[in-house]
């Protein structure tokens, strides 16, 4: 199964080197993979994944990933 991954802010440094024309990383995963599997693979603690979007909608770590989905993960962002 393949998805597209986008990591933002402090997580951007964990992105794979190969990106598509839109800046997402194509990612191969086993069938039945969940958001949590991607968090683990990229060593992102669940507590630090503040916003998780799956095809533009909020998702939880337990959410299964469908073929062709786009997963975006953001840390908490602060500033002033």
Taking all Cα atoms into account, the compactness measure Rg is: 12 Å
Helix content: under 10%
| CATH classification class of the domain at 31-80 | Alpha Beta
Structure summary, number of beta strands? 5
Spans of at least 5 consecutive residues with low confidence? none
- The helix count comes to 1
Biggest sheet overview: 5 strands, mixed
CATH superfamily of the domain at 31-80: Beta-grasp domain
Gross morphology: globular
CATH architecture descriptor name of the domain at 31-80: Roll
Query: What is the rounded distance between the termini?
Result: 40 Å
- Structural class designation: mainly beta
- Mean pLDDT across all amino acids: 95
Q: Main sheet: which strands, in order across?
A: 2-1-5-3-4
Q: Assess the beta-strand content as a share of residues.
A: 25-35%
CATH fold group of the domain at 31-80: Ubiquitin-like (UB roll)
Question: What string, H for helix and E for strand, traces the elements in order?
Answer: EEHEEE
């Amino acid at each position: 199964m393949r998805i597209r991954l986008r990591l933002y802010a402090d997580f951007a440094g964990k992105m794979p080197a190969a990106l598509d024309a839109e800046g997402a990383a194509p990612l191969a995963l086993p069938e039945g993979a969940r958001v949590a599997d991607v968090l683990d693979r990229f060593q992102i603690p669940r507590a630090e994944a503040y916003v998780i979007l799956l095809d533009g909608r909020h998702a939880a770590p337990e959410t299964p990933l469908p073929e062709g989905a786009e997963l975006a993960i953001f840390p908490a962002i602060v500033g002033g």
